[in-house]
Amino acid sequence: MKSETMFEGQFDYVIVGAGTAGCVLANRLSEDADVSVLLIEAGGKDDYAWIHVPVGYLYCIGNPRTDWLYRTEQERGLNGRALSYPRGRVLGGSSSINGMIYMRGQREDYDEWARVTGDPAWSWDEVLPVFKRSEDHHGGANAWHGAGGPWRVEKQRLKWKVLEAFRQAAQEAGIPATDDFNRGDNSGVGYFEVNQKRGIRWNASKAFLRPALERPNLTVVTGAQVRRLTFDGKRCTGVAYRGGATGEREFVAQARIEVVLAAGAVNSPQLLELSGIGNGARLQRLGIQVVHDLRGVGENLQDHLQLRMAYRVRGVRTLNTMSAHWWGKMLIAMQYALWRSGPMSMSPSQLGAFAKSAENDASITRPDIEYHVQPLSLDRFGEPLHRFNAFTASACHLRPTSRGSIHIASADPFAAPAIAPNYLSTDYDRHVAANALRLTRRIVQASALARYFPEEILPGPQYQTEEELARAAGDIGTTIFHPVGTCRMGTSNDPGAVVDTRLRVLGVAGLRVVDASVMPTITSGNTNSPTLMIAERGSDMIRADRRERARLARANAASPIVTAM
């Protein structure tokens, strides 16, 4: 494996982005010793210590060393607010800064993909073995889980009394207990399983990239930002990127077989548009030469909006007060140093629940609300914890009907794109948001939590009517970092599709997109492991297509040439 130095020349495959998908692709494609693979990452190595300590996400999000530092446009549905929009900019991508929650989603999510694309290969029964192949589950192999794969899944290493009380309260409110959210039906309340190994974050770089680094056919370049794709007519031939000591020199890497975009739901559509693939009229207004008019690029953005409800409690300790004093911080540090447990081993959310936002609505046939429950509270992410004991119950609508977009605002490849999630832009999403706040209150009012005298401090008990609750949702809603769908897959006659079901960009040759942007609809839960599954499937497709091309070439070479007399 070659690294660090900028490279020009030819490779069989050029992969753009060393996030979750890119790390998987680099590993799987380089397993074939007779191909050469170049992996290009704009960020640096994942050698920043806080990446690996689970609670270190607090120091990675909003840090230019590890985060692209994107922001959304001002959102009407959020009462004019703009949000920070973290995306990983480091080896491992967002798996290096995320909440580490292992979540596949629901069976129906994938069956819906199969239906809308017309390809049964994306159904739950077909993708479950792919999930299992990657997995190294703490419970070993069974009908639902795999063992021995690179993607480690473990139980969390601590519990809190206040979370136990919330778990019991949820059951009193009619949400059944579960010990596994990943059997295709994630109904219930229980503790999230996490991508950790003995209390340390297990990111895609550790799982997939590092084992491949000794292969001589894999080259990894960091600190290199791709500016555009290169084309010969409508065939993608490579990428042009900036790097080196000053970051000013342009390098060109050519791909003999394919370029694979694995830059994520923000950067993949951005690169397509910068390279002349997208809505032709939009690109022409920006002075970009159109290679192929593909209207769906950057459209269909979906994300989970979380509604953070916070409750002050008495008679039980939470992280707020445990970390408020020097002796508490020392105890926390000792727990982690000695046993890799305690608050420093925490994912951002420990307890989860999946429920229907309205039990009496016959149109809701499966859970459409996910809870992330935390033994802490604060006014806004990045601000200090409150000085009193409290917990936060964040509810997100799993299948929003609102759709947004990500588009370049200029031809400058180093300018951030315009991110407009369009949260709460439909009456249905606002209604579900109001119902989610009501459901949270019903859970908190159950007897299991009564002993701690919960007092709602965010958004506050003054919001009661449907209109008031919808407005409150706009005040407290924030992203849970799950953008998908901006290069969605579909059929060739689908005007909104960007890639086919083998993830090939429609209308051009030699180019695929393999990341969360290809999802037609968002999965019902956290999106990191579904992205990993997409990359596993994409790797299989790429390798199978190469084998088929080789077979046809051999067959053609062996065919006798008949010359007319």
Written account of the structure:
By secondary structure, this protein is an alpha/beta fold. It contains 15 helices and 25 strands. The strands form seven sheets. Strands 1, 2, 3, 11, 12, 13, 14 and 25 form an eight-stranded mixed sheet that branches. Strands 8, 17, 18, 19, 20, 23 and 24 form a seven-stranded antiparallel sheet that branches. The chain is globular and about 85 Å long. The model has no long low-confidence stretch (mean pLDDT 95).
Terminal-residue CA separation: 54 Å
Number of helices: 15
Gyration radius from CA atoms, angstroms: 24 Å
Category by helix and strand content? alpha/beta
Shape: globular
Low-pLDDT ranges: none
Number of strands: 25
Largest sheet: 8 strands, mixed
- Which band does the percent of strand residues land in? 15-25%
Roughly what percent helix? 25-40%
**Average predicted local confidence, pLDDT:** 95
